[in-house]
């Protein structure tokens, strides 16, 4: 088993050849990787079975097993995902602006790869191919560190991807896996400053917390979403109901699902019973403040903790507010800065919400569920950043790049 | 003396009001701050005298004292600097792109402030007003932590700036100073994740190293420049000489000064004696590899360490290389990723250098000394980033901002 330093050294070397590659060299390699997944479906399924046996022995939850399991269809989807990445425009080499300075130098800002990207993730083996191929397309070497539950699947996948690179100009070390899945290796990776240009953790609140406490490598924090829907006094009942039902129930386990409903006191009495009825088919548990309780049939009292919690489940905190300002203050205090919605027909209220709410995605009259790289039209997504540095919101290929200034002179000195 | 947590809480609150301010509110406040510096020149000079007395008692070097000392002219320059910042276009609110997605949502990417910025710097008191006013213009609250050598000057400056904010909509806590100048307070600041959105260290290699080892707050690394000038076989002698003299001697103490000269073996014999003569008036010490030594009159042998060192002095490492590739490999290995130059009349060599050298600023036929926010035409500079995340190269106002997505819907659900 290679040490992280060995992986890091090889990745850094691979990054250099990758940064110099043309788009067609990268796209051809991606197509080979995609085909290799299809060709080796049996091998992947066999490896995945080993993970599933171990998972059952370790009494892992059904939910987790569902994330872990691969089928022929899922492998086909992973292969198709790589093909789609091959079709995306290449951000590398693009010059975002070019100008002449006072000394007559022509200065351009050109997109270049970040270098070596580390990704720490949990049980889904599809992240191995998704994240690996996205980093590759953006010209980066990648070191992947998946969860121990998926280690057999991940090893098989990486072996296949590396093998697919054999006939190309890229060394297999372009995409590497950390086979040591102990917590120590994870922490060591978080401090691998010499080799990693950025670390992207993809996982639950606990992983993100460990990264924040431990990492000295530059990190892009992703995916904690305590998202709010605020129904203004000037909201339409049907639109408000549709949006909260969609934001809460269409997929509650993801970070762009809504967790708290804030509602203006002027409409609470009329709207809340309708909303409760609309949420009933999903058995959504409502945890309400005192005022909201009085309008709801089956709600239970909310605790302080409920305002802070990303339930990721069929649970919704409900609070009646006396004004838009109070709604914004609540969001300021409890939001993780992911996605927030105002439902209103009032122009001024919408604009104030846009201006004053400080989150990655701020919506007027739409569901939080749209915060997603594909829905935004990026054609890909490596995660949703909830930090303000480098990238904020859904991250596509561009967010996996850096820039350099290229300067054309004719002997200028200063 | 307030604790860092108290400063952090106040800054976070101030950041909210700052984010909602209009450009004219901010510019008016900047003009008041500028005027206040001029009005209180005497107070600032008196405080500065206390720092100078302490500096002399502590036997601080002349070089350091020169950085510390304020005069009426220097204070006027600081005040003028703030006025210039007031005149710059406000990046906040700008929408960098707006499009419609498949669901018919109108999605825009809008510039917003980062929030709270921490700056750790050393003895120059002008950083207090420069950095403070730049962060302010970009809508950020700032916590400044200057060196203990300048504590009296910094306290006076901050007091004057805060006082100038009294008639404005901004709380004085918009710009704060850490008065505790112990190393512990500095380290605590590096881990103030709850309050700081980013930390920008401005100082020598030792400070940067401590930050890298200690910080858990997102950091923008600045200002280490082991910069290279490569003279190609197809270079013009006069241009090559002018560029290396300018890059080394015009201001050796700054990060964009050149530290190593690489020269192609085909021209070493002709060029090196001319270059040595041109550098002689500055008494530049040449530390050369074996080949270069044979062409130089007064050089001494270079050690391994010399290739790695940012001398910040009238010292230049010199190495003869057999090819452009060897030059690029040397840069790859020893550069800090700041600024590198090729001097050549060969088109293919210039393009290869641009493509393959991975530094913030890559020049053909110009001096490294142009790597500077003002020279690039940004109208301001908060530092020169040598990292790849968020910002790379000279950082102006835009680099002190983040973005958020503003989304206009009409009831869309997913």
Mean pLDDT of chain A: 96
Shape designation of chain A: globular
Low-confidence stretches of chain A: none
CATH fold annotation of the largest domain in chain A: Aldehyde Dehydrogenase, Chain A, domain 1
Secondary structure class of chain A reads: alpha/beta
Would you count the extended β strands of chain A for me?
16
Q: What proportion strand of chain A?
A: 15-25%
- Per CATH, the superfamily of the largest domain in chain A is Aldehyde Dehydrogenase, Chain A, domain 1
Tell me which CATH architecture of the largest domain in chain A applies here: 3-Layer(aba) Sandwich
Briefly, what CATH class of the largest domain in chain A? Alpha Beta
Ends distance of chain A? 53 Å
Catalytic activity (chains A, B): L-glutamate 5-semialdehyde + phosphate + NADP(+) = L-glutamyl 5-phosphate + NADPH + H(+)
Domain Aldehyde dehydrogenase (chains A, B): 9-286
InterPro entries (chains A, B): Ald_DH/histidinol_DH, Ald_DH_C, Ald_DH_N, Aldehyde_DH_dom, G-glutamylP_reductase_CS, Glu-5-SA_DH, GPR_dom
Main location (chains A, B): cytoplasm
